[in-house]
Amino acid sequence: MNTRNSRLLFSLVTIFSLVWAFTSTAFASKEKPVIGLSLDTLKEERWQHDRDTFTAAAEKLGARVIVQSANSDDTRQVRDIESLISRGVDVLVIVPHNGAAMTRAVKSANQAKIPVISYDRLILNADIDYYLSFDNVKVGEAQASYLTAHLPTDRPARIVRIYGAPTDNNAKLFKQGQDNVLDPLIKSGKIVVVHEDWALDWKPEVAKKIMNAAITKAGTEIDAVLASNDGTAGGAIQSLVEEGLAGKVLVTGQDADLAACQRIMRGTQSMTVYKPLKTLATNAARIAVSVARGEQPSATSSVDNGLKQVPSIFEQVISVDKENLEATVVADGFHSAAALK
Ligand code: GAL
Question: Cα separation of 147 and 113, whole Å?
């Protein structure tokens, strides 16, 4: 093939691939939407579930999902979102590490006319399009109600409170729910909080330190640990194990992590709050694809995020202990009965 023909062939191939690249991306917007999923972390087991269930549901609807995990770093998460925007995604689904630190990134999405869905945790003071989560106040109420139903009533009950990450708006909602139940009992002296603290980034090792500090301060006369999720419960229980108190102190949790469900069967953790992630993730995929196609799916509620009333959908949660673990978490296929042995 002489050089003139090879040059002609080369320019034809170049033009074709440019046209194809342009049409395929533009085409992707409607027929095959591209979703940018920006996660705070994949450290906790639940986020791996969310990622996999969401991606599978979105792909089933014809979409493609690009996942980024920020490893609990705000600067990195803003960068992740900026790069998803520059890659031309059609919609962003964000689990903020810090709901107040995403305002700038959302502004960039607004400028690029890319809709934003806040997933599980609320992005504050920003023009987002939807918020999908569980009833997080109910999570806290379920945890505290479990304790008040099992704590001694013949003397003041002594409890330790381990809250979630101070950067996480959900941690405040869980505490609010717990306060709704506990405040009257604390006021009447029926419950005494011997120690309380927030676990930075929900780290189990931070929760263990908080529990060590509680035992140093209050001794081993502790009736319960109101831990805000299974990760922090696991950290606190490590400390209880070292003090020979595991199984003698009530411990709450959230997320129905596998390790937590095994602890509940063994009796070192008392309960967890099961949040059917499949419902949340599948609904989020449906909304994301619909929004990417220019539709305006309806919401069942709304929340003030400090800037606007955000159309929202909240899923229900289930309080789980040894008695109903099979009928809930196992029946739902979240964990197998064999895995809990
Ligand atoms: C919360 C979430 C909980 C828990 C925690 C730690 O925002 O709602 O399910 O996992 O983060 O990641």
Answer: 47
pLDDT at 1: 62
Residue 253 CB partners (closer than 8 Å, separation 6+): 143, 227, 229, 230, 232, 233, 260, 269, 271, 272, 273
Residue 276, helix vs strand vs coil: coil
Q: What is the pLDDT of residue 165?
A: 98
The pLDDT of residue 8: 81
CA distance 223 to 134: 29
Q: What is the mean pLDDT of each run of 10 residues along the chain (341 residues)?
A: 76 70 55 96 96 98 98 97 98 98 96 98 98 98 98 97 98 98 98 98 98 97 98 98 98 98 98 98 98 96 98 98 97 96 85
Question: d(Cα 230, Cα 255) in Å, to the nearest integer?
Answer: 6
Atom of ligand 1 nearest to the CA of 46: 10
CA of residue 235 to ligand 1 center, whole Å: 15
Q: Rounded to whole angstroms, how far apart are CA atoms 255 and 277? A: 9
Q: Give me ligand 1 centre to Cα 189, in Å.
A: 30
Does the Cβ of 120 fall within 6 Å of ligand 1? yes
Nearest 5°: CA angle at 89, between 32 and 278?
70
Pocket test for ligand 1, best of 48, 255, 317 (most atoms within 8 A of CB): 255
**CA angle, 250 then 252 then 258, to 5°:** 115
Q: pTM for this structure?
A: 0.91
Q: Is the dihedral of CA 109, 110, 112, 115 positive or negative?
A: positive
Amino acid at 247: G
